[in-house]
Specification:
Radius of gyration: 18 Å
Shape: globular
Bound molecules: adenosine monophosphate, manganese (II) ion
Oligomer: single chain
Number of domains: 2
CATH class of the largest domain: Alpha Beta
Strand order of the largest sheet: 4-5-6-7-8
Structural class: alpha/beta
Strand content: 5-15%
Number of strands: 8
CATH superfamily of the largest domain: Metal-dependent hydrolases
């Protein structure tokens, strides 16, 4: 079993179509892949899943905890679930409203055309990543990092705060769709160990199931610490690359430290709602 349970297609801010991700997963010896687009459910009907690969239905929800943005991955979900579909529609509307407000701010700075740019793309969920790409394509910043810094981060000239639902609402929406709720990339929120412990406690209190203990760019110390914190709470362990593009500096599909013998004991595939061999 070689899982990658977190990556993005061009339906959110990934660069490639889902079929590309499936083929790359096979090339990289991944056996179980979840495409987890931001606030977006994948329509799998036209996908050709290669033999030897299992596609685990998933998504990544943007949520809020103590005024911070936290990401919750949903795995093994029923994509036909009406409550989850309704939740996702509301998230996509929040995203359109946020990006439209950014467009107004950019127009005030004589930068026009963002909405046309987005409409020319295959994306269903609009993200700040797209805004950064647009700004770079128009020559407003050498690369996405710089565009983020100048325009999109708090304090940037086109920044608009997001109004995400609480993590408990995201967990509930995933579980109403029979899914497993996973705290995404916990080391990327800039929290101290004690604050991260509080986040995990609240996540668990709200019914959360699992924690990503391995992902792209994680180091050994962080991974060991996350495995310990996850096991102390009796939560399950998940892992994924968070791959977005083969062209940029993202971790490749399947190319992150494996769960390892310590985390395998409470691996996500032991969860009662994991339905895949
Ligand atoms: P949003 O969910 O609309 O706030 O967009 C966030 C997405 O933008 C993330 O999932 C990343 O893919 C991307 N992103 C966030 N920060 C940066 C950054 N500093 N440079 C490049 N991409 C970023
Ligand atoms: Mn992203
Ligand atoms: Mn994320
Ligand atoms: Mn992600």
């Amino acid at each position: 079993m070689n899982v990658d349970l977190h990556c993005h297609s061009h339906f959110s801010d990934g660069q490639h179509p889902p079929q590309f991700l499936l083929d790359r997963a096979v090339a990289n010896n991944v056996t179980h892949l979840a495409i987890t687009d931001h606030d977006c459910l994948l329509n799998c009907s036209e996908l050709k899943v290669p033999p030897g690969l299992t596609l685990v239905p998933g998504l990544e929800i943007s949520a809020s905890w103590r005024a911070m943005e936290i990401h919750i991955v949903g795995l093994s979900i029923d994509a036909e679930s009406k409550p989850l579909q309704d939740f996702v529609s509301r998230q996509q509307q929040l995203r359109r409203d946020r990006i439209s407000a950014m467009d107004k701010k950019l127009s005030g700075q004589n930068i026009s055309g963002l909405l046309d740019y987005l409409q020319s793309k295959p994306c269903i969920s609009w993200t700040r990543g797209h805004v950064a790409e647009f700004l770079v394509s128009k020559g407003h910043g050498k690369d996405m990092q710089r565009a983020f810094k100048r325009f999109l981060r708090p304090g940037g000239s086109a920044h608009v705060a997001a109004q995400w639902p609480e993590i408990g609402e995201a967990i509930a929406a995933i579980q109403q769709a029979s899914g497993i709720a996973v705290l995404a990339h916990p080391g990327r929120y800039g929290l101290t160990r004690s604050k991260l412990g509080r986040l995990m406690d609240d996540f668990q209190q709200d019914g959360g199931d699992a924690v990503e203990v391995s992902y792209g760019s994680i180091n050994y110390v962080q991974r060991t610490s996350l495995i310990t914190m996850t096991q102390e709470r009796g939560l399950y362990a998940s892992a994924g690359s968070d791959f977005h593009s083969a062209e940029r500096q993202w971790t490749d599909i399947g190319k992150f430290p494996a769960l390892g013998s310590a985390a395998i004991k409470n691996a996500i595939w032991a969860h009662p709602r994991w339905h895949f061999l």
